[in-house]
Amino acid sequence: MQWETVIGLEIHTQLASKSKIFSGASIAYGAEPNSQACIVDLGFPGVLPVLNEAAVDMALMFGLAVDAQIGSRSVFARKNYFYPDLPKGYQISQFELPIVGRGSLTIDLEDGQQKEIGITRAHLEEDAGKSLHEDFHGMSGIDLNRAGTPLLEIVSEPDMRSIKEAVAYARKIHQLVVYLGICDGNMQEGSFRVDANLSMRPKGQQEFGTRTELKNINSFRFLERAMNFERERQIDLLESGKAVVQETRLYDADRDETRSMRSKEEANDYRYFPDPDLLPVEITEQRLAQAKGRMPELPDQKKARFEADYQLSDTDATLLTQSRPQADYYEQVVATGADPKIAANWVTVELAGALNKAGLELSDSPVSAEQLGGLLKRIADNTISGKLAKQVFEAIWQGEGDADTVIEAKGLKQITDSGQIESIIDEIIAANPKQVEQFQAGKDKLLGFFVGQVMKQTQGKANPGQVNQILLKKLKS
Amino acid sequence: MSLDRSDVEKIAHLARLALDENQVEGYAAELSNILALVEQLEAADTDNIEPMAHPLHMAQRLRQDQVTEPDRREQNQAVAPLVENGLYLVPKVIE
Questions:
Q1: Chain B closest-CA separation from residue A25 CA (Å)
Q2: Quick check: A270 and A40 in contact, CB under 8 A?
Q3: CA A247, A107, A287 angle in degrees (round to 5)?
Q4: Domains of chain B: total
Q5: How much of chain A exceeds pLDDT 90, in percent?
Q6: Domains parsed from chain A with CATH numbers
Q7: What is the ipTM of this complex?
Q8: pTM for this entry
Q9: Residue B32 lies in a domain
């Protein structure tokens, strides 16, 4: 039987605020356990949550970026369950009236087509703490630093029909929230967490099959692997006449498998109700307008502009706009007067390759955009050949100064004085009478030999175009 | 709509309330009465009424995004039954 995969994703993005969503405790990563858990986060009696306006504004920016419906009123609710990583006995979340309503996001598919994925909603909530289960004499250790960290949970419609589509959607959301500056996107530190709802149905069938929810996925690679494993597992069950059980499954990266998370009757009965500690949030026209004013150029807009303004190919524009720092760097190089197409090549090939090899981020690049622009200028005005430019780039990378300093210090300046080139060529012709004879007898490929001799003599500094031209003129006369 | 014993036991379990066997019937009756009251409310025409999320006619006040809470771990943990390496210790939560 032919099976069709149906996937919807729930993505938790940690918002890039300084303080928690309902308290003034810091959310900096990596602090001493419980040093950033204040009495509000700990659920002490008598404390009251006060909403962080940065969390509201960041959620609004996301809503605007996905063309979502944004209501004038938003309500917080209590999601009740008992677990020690949430000392209050409930998580403050949103149920009815989430801050961001229905929207959509367009993803690019491998075959060059585009597809619109529905976004059901995005709501604000507080994160839970962390439980550590090892080495505490049969007890669990609780660190509540993360409790109260602002999250925006972005829920998609079950619109994805393949694992590739789901990964493309997750990547696009990741790119978007990082561009917006509302999330640092760090998956290892848990700032961007993806839960996948996956089910299978016979191709052509209308109703959805029973789904499972996959959790504990902290990289795009694991997301793809977890879904692949789960897809095969469900197909095996269905083809052997068994039923898929609706449950939450954890992905185990070490074993590359998913396994059932809850052994007992964990009824997901959260008994949501509006949190009486928090009044409804009013989204005023003014607040929404301010959020609009803070919107940066989004990846798709930037890509379209790069194609139009710099005549870049779809591939180059896509690569360059992958991240905001890279797009900014590229524009700084172009601003020095560099040819946009050549600049694109240097940023996406030479620079990206060198950074990758050295394991560095663009923000740590030893070569600044101005320095790269300076190098490209010297290629454009024929001071150095494209071949030697790589050597100059290497020297700039090593901290030997900018392009002009390196060219001067290493004596790499291209020889463009035709008189000088001619006299070198004359010497070479005089020294190789046999090859000259053979060339003149019709052995054309010997031209390469002569070019090689000139380059050897000049340490690669002679202008290749001029060398060819003068050689041909002299050899054929 | 009325609740029976098993409903009350389930609600008590979800809320982690320890009920005596002989309290269950009483609660079932009381909670059923509350539901009966809700049924009466349901008869009212609410077509043009905006749902109320809070009895106060006010909007939530927002705070600026600033870190205002210093580290008070020592004081906070002074009232905890068990603490180790800065962590709160609780009965093991997974098997």
A1: 5
A2: no
A3: 90
A4: 1
A5: 70
A6: 3-290 (no CATH), 297-410 (no CATH), 418-476 (1.10.10.410)
A7: 0.90
A8: 0.85
A9: yes
